[in-house]
Structure prediction request, 249 residues.
Amino acid sequence: MELNNKIVLVVGGAAGIGKATAEVCAARGATVIVADYNEQAGAAAAEGIRAQGQPAIFVPVNVTDEGSVARLYEQIGARYGRLDALAQCAGVLQGAFVPVEEFPLDVFRAVVEVNMVGSFLCSKHAVPLMKQNGKGVIVLVSSGAAQGGSSSVAYGSSKGGVSSLGITLAGKLAPDNIRVNVVHPGEIRTAMKLSVIAAEAELKGRSADEAVAQASAGSRLGEPEGVGKILAWLVSDDADYVRGFIHTR
Prediction:
């Protein structure tokens, strides 16, 4: 599976699954655009790819701001003239272990804005460039929490929305030769996951540092690169016949 001559946008590419996806796509021949709200980490991620001899740029983006998202795609269009694939990995988890009856509305809305609205805006503005190209691939990163529950009411709900959004887009964009897939990662060793483990430990009166160390040392958690390899495959031509959801460990 090669990505030679592919232009791939990885939103949320500064860390975790997004960063791993950007690195794997670049290693397999893609020109990668790393987009993220964290400008310092995003620029470092792109620089790391370039240090390996692969082309990559960083573009800052706020996925909750349609103007910011539109400017991202304007830059891609001006620089490359097309977009072959979008991997939308940006996401946040807030409100872990907060009871439903105490869950703040502003936190719920903030999580939905990043996870669900952000996925919609990134997909919306990718479509014109892909239509111009005659084909394209959109991969949205949801979560196993969309179906199996979550420590956060907002996170689980928003990721359920991402999954439904992806399936809806798949049907609407198929006539334009744009394939849409949704990935449901499971227990992956990311900063977000480790923060939830720490919060749960503190809630139970245990040492957060010890709980994180145990989770990091064991085989309970998968690695971001493992999911990154799946996303890199999904944006390739080898995955043309894949439909619907993809579940990972």
Q: What stands out?
A: The chain has a mean pLDDT of 94. Residues 189-222 form one domain. The first strand starts at residue 7 and ends at 11. DSSP finds nine helices and seven strands in the chain.
